[in-house]
Design a protein that fits this description.
single chain; five-stranded mixed β-sheet; 446 residues; three-stranded antiparallel β-sheet; alpha+beta; Cytochrome p450
Amino acid sequence: MRLSPAPPGPKGHLLVGSLPEIQRDELDFLVQQVREHGDIVHIRVVNHDSYVLSHPNDIETVLVTKSNNFMKSVFLRESRALFGDGLLTSDGGLWQRQRRLLQPAFHHEHILAYTKTMLDSTERMLATWKDGEERDVHEDMTRLTMEIVAKVVFGEDIDSDADQACQAFSLFFKQYDERFGLYLIPEWLPTPANFRYRRAIKRLDDIVLGIIRRKHSATNGNGHSPGVLSMMLGARDGDGSGMPERQVRDEMMTLFFTGHETTALALAWTFYLLGQNPEKEQKLQAEIDAVLDGRAPGFQDLARMPYLEMVFKESLRLYPPAFGVVREALNDCEIGGYAIRKGATLAMFQWVVHRDPRFFERPDEFIPERWENDFAKTLPRCAYFPFGAGSRVCIGNTFAQAEVPLLIASIVRRFQLKLLPGHRVATAPSLTLRPLRGIRVTLRKR
């Protein structure tokens, strides 16, 4: 079969390609290009060529069946200043070793042990909420999930550092976006933005390395105190070697970030969707009230709340916190009848695929009921992939699938979150899918 040399795509501007359109509204631009040009779209940004894949078969090729021919993208590799060689950015043998050492911390029995921390932290937050007050639910969920992940990952509270950590992560996002706004401004350039970027990372380094050194001193590396960090300090590879401090730092920074950021977003976007759809919210309230009968939820209750699971799945479909996966081709290859050259960037956006009318009827509507009757089993593989796919599926997916529904049930049984009239919620795609100006709500005690 003769391969076509290049997929169709927007012509773009002579010097910068499609950069202005991406900067104006990245998500809408991607959806429009896929609808206009098809399942593989060639997009040029400045002097860099990318290919957007939106058919599940092509995505499966990259993430599952031929994943060894693809590596993490330049976008993730350029975030190594924060994440180092943690699971989010590493490849090859290092990634395989680290995944093997970290996986036991996310086994079922550990997830069960973590649920008490999740629920206790949520109850403490709810005790501070007052009927009628206005809050930013994204900000609250960020603080809550940061507290939970600190206790689960580090085995200790970070109350004294939480504000600084939140501010540093927010600054990291802002400066990361500015650096990529002109398509990868080199980190070594002495710009004000890069100085702020490095200061944010230094503050996070101080917090995380301080915890690691305290924990190592307290446990003597034997892993006898709670938390993923303690397990990691005691972990040994087949040759009996432990993990160097720098590698521990990289994995802890990665888990600290991904463990609170994506979960907070999943919660915030879910409450946003429920606020927009009061009849779905009432149906969820009725299920939670009937199952819990006024008491706090437990892990065992999740199996008795199928509508809660549907709400969570539908929220991840419409607003996936990790809204895109990007890879780089290690060798020349063929995808969907097109020749893809070594070094090419391949981008797969859940935001686009999850809204494909070929797989989801009325794709832009929030319809939790679509997940009834094992609907997921009727979908092509990689038509719905909120946690990624293949061997690199998110290591914390089982943790998130327990944490998010438990926290939703805990909050919904006590409060209704009414969207603040006049507050426009917009998306701010970056490493994750954040709300641009938060999600403002009014609390109504139930």
